[in-house]
Amino acid sequence: MRRLIVLLPLFLCIALGLFLWNGIGKDTQSIPSPLLDKPVPEFSLTSLYNEQRFLTQEDLKGRPALLNVWATWCPTCKQEHAQLNRIAQDEGVVIYGINYKDDRAKAKIWLEKYLDPYALNIFDPEGKLGLDLGVYGAPETYLLDAQGVIRYKHIGAVDERVWAQLKEKMQQLEVN
Amino acid sequence: MLRYCFAVLLLCISSVSYSAIDTYEFSDEANRARFQVLAAELRCPKCQNQNIADSNSPIAEDLRFELHRMLETGADDDQIVDFMVTRYGEFVLYRPRMSAQTYLLWYGPAALLILGIVVVLVVSGKRKSGNKKDSATGLSEQEKQRLDHLLKQDQDK
């Protein structure tokens, strides 16, 4: 008994060490989104291409899809753009775009130049929808199910590795 | 000349340190004070180790704008904090709220302190009962005399 008490500090140190060790290498940059498993917030914003056409959260329903937040001022968005084009064209994935805090004319030129992977493009110049979605740095990509509920959120570029993860989650959604 | 330089230097410092806050107009002083308190307690989601009052990142700017808008439209502090938490999560609170998840955080230190005191009491209690000297001070007669002597020496001064 007495020996156990003497050894107690050692055990506590080991426990603390394991706890801290566990934290090493963890991603501290991405914050878990409180919007997971909640529907996309209500919005009514114009389409990037058509100022007269208003898009709402209802337009994002129907099929599991990706919702990608992008802007022309965001270098990482350019980096992931080719990958998005490939996913949309070759794999037939529905990708919706949110043009976040950007300039309409610039965005149109950008999409002309680098091609447009988006089934719909929501123009959010003030970042209102972005704020409601908890966007804090473009690019961000949300995985939506057919009912327009957010199932997953990725912060940063969608590269080959990230797409593999998203694809797997998306296939699970299609099955359900 | 030196004084002049110093004054210019001071002016430089003052304009920098207030630039993040004083761009907003407030309807009354109470709102201004609340703005400063809330901006200091809300964490910037992008830069993480700064609050939204300190940070120059675009998202912190947006959140300050939103904070100002909500204050001026009469939202109370809880509504504002809820607004931020539903979008960015508990993460944005530098002062976490009391909940089942944060009990350990809030009560952990006090619990550890109490545990420590209990351990010290138990250990010292055991030591005392095992010791034959057994007076309230834990000193033998000889040690007491020596202590008295030393204390008296000090009083003479």
TrEMBL record, chain A:
* Lineage summary: Bacteria, Pseudomonadati, Pseudomonadota, Gammaproteobacteria, Oceanospirillales
Under Gene Ontology molecular function, one entry of this record is: disulfide oxidoreductase activity
Gene3D superfamilies named among the record's database cross-references = Glutaredoxin
The cross-references to PROSITE patterns, in alphabetical order and at most eight, read:
THIOREDOXIN_1 (PS00194), THIOREDOXIN_2 (PS51352)
Q: Membrane topology type, per the record?
A: Single-pass membrane protein
Top-level taxonomic group: Bacteria
Protein name, per record? DsbE family thiol:disulfide interchange protein
What Pfam families does the database record attribute to this sequence? Redoxin
> Biological process GO annotation list?
cytochrome complex assembly
**Segments forming domain Thioredoxin:** 34-172
One annotated Gene Ontology cellular component of this protein: outer membrane-bounded periplasmic space
Q: State the organism named in the record.
A: Amphritea balenae
**Which key words tag this protein in UniProt?**
Cytochrome c-type biogenesis, Disulfide bond, Redox-active center
Q: Mainly localized where?
A: membrane
Name the protein family. Belongs to the thioredoxin family. DsbE subfamily.
From TrEMBL, chain B:
The answer to keyword Transmembrane applying to this record is yes
Provide ranges: composition bias, Basic and acidic residues: 131-157
> Has UniProt tagged this entry with the keyword Iron-sulfur?
no
Signal sequence bounds: 1-19
Region (Disordered) location: 128-157
Record GO biological process: cytochrome complex assembly
Record function comment = Possible subunit of a heme lyase.
Check the record and name the InterPro entries matching this protein.
C-type_cytochrome_biogenesis, CcmH/CycL/Ccl2/NrfF_N, CcmH/CycL/NrfF/Ccl2_sf
Q: Name one GO molecular function term.
A: metal ion binding
Annotated protein name in UniProt: Cytochrome c-type biogenesis protein
* Residues covered by the CcmH/CycL/Ccl2/NrfF N-terminal domain: 8-151
- Give a Gene Ontology cellular component term annotated to this protein: plasma membrane
Keyword annotations from UniProtKB, A to Z: Cytochrome c-type biogenesis, Heme, Iron, Membrane, Metal-binding, Signal, Transmembrane, Transmembrane helix
Family named by the database record: Belongs to the CcmH/CycL/Ccl2/NrfF family.
